[in-house]
């Protein structure tokens, strides 16, 4: 009886563990998306003023404040995929939002559209402000 219980337990563990995504699979999905700090974005902006910097928040949030040189393409709008066609897929793209959730979504959508290098700002504009980095109004 004990032997049957051990075999059943082993089969159950094998079955349930095979249903989970492994970290490798998640990495493969993300590909060339890199999570970077607000300081790294700040340094990139002031090193190269021609970078593709995208604020993926709503137009209302963008009007309140945004990073210098950022263009606003709201990830939650129905035409997000159409609007990002103005960007060069072969050049790095930096995305940010308020806390990081929408920029992660935008980064995945950009990857699906064939963008080759995507930088997602960790912590969004909230962490940017906590680091007392410069904003535009």
Characterize the structure shown:
With 137 residues, the protein is an alpha/beta fold. It has one domain: Oxidized Rhodanese, domain 1 (3-Layer(aba) Sandwich). Helix content is 47%, strand content 13%. It is built from seven helices and five strands, in the order H-H-E-H-E-H-E-H-E-H-E-H. It has helices at 2-18, 23-30, 38-47, 59-64, 80-83, 101-112, 124-130; strands spanning 33-36, 52-55, 71-72, 93-96, 118-121. The chain has a five-stranded parallel beta sheet. Strand 2 (52-55), helix 4 (59-64) and strand 3 form a beta-alpha-beta unit. It is globular, with a radius of gyration of 20 Å. The N and C termini lie far apart (72 Å).
Strand order of the largest sheet: 1-5-4-2-3
N- and C-termini, Cα separation: 72 Å
Element pattern in H and E: HHEHEHEHEHEH
Classify the beta-strand content into a percent band: 5-15%
Gyration radius (Cα, Å) is 20 Å
Assembly state of the chains shown: single chain
Mean pLDDT: 83
Shape: globular
Q: Class by helix and strand content?
A: alpha/beta
CATH class: Alpha Beta
| Shape-level CATH architecture | 3-Layer(aba) Sandwich
Tally of domains: 1
The CATH topology: Oxidized Rhodanese, domain 1
Number of strands: 5
Main pleated-sheet profile? 5 strands, parallel
């Amino acid at each position: 009886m004990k032997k049957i219980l051990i075999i059943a337990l082993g089969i159950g563990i094998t079955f349930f563990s095979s249903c989970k995504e492994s970290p490798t699979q998640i990495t493969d999905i993300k590909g060339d998306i890199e999570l970077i700090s607000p300081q790294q974005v700040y340094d990139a902006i002031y090193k190269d003023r021609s970078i593709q910097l995208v604020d993926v928040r709503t137009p209302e949030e963008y009007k309140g404040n945004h990073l210098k040189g950022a263009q606003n393409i709201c990830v939650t709008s129905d035409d997000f995929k159409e609007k990002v066609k103005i960007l060069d897929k072969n050049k790095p793209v930096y995305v940010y939002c308020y806390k990081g959730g929408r920029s992660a979504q935008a980064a995945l959508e950009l990857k699906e559209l064939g963008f080759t290098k995507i930088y997602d700002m960790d912590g969004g504009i909230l962490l940017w402000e906590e680091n007392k980095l410069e904003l535009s109004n």
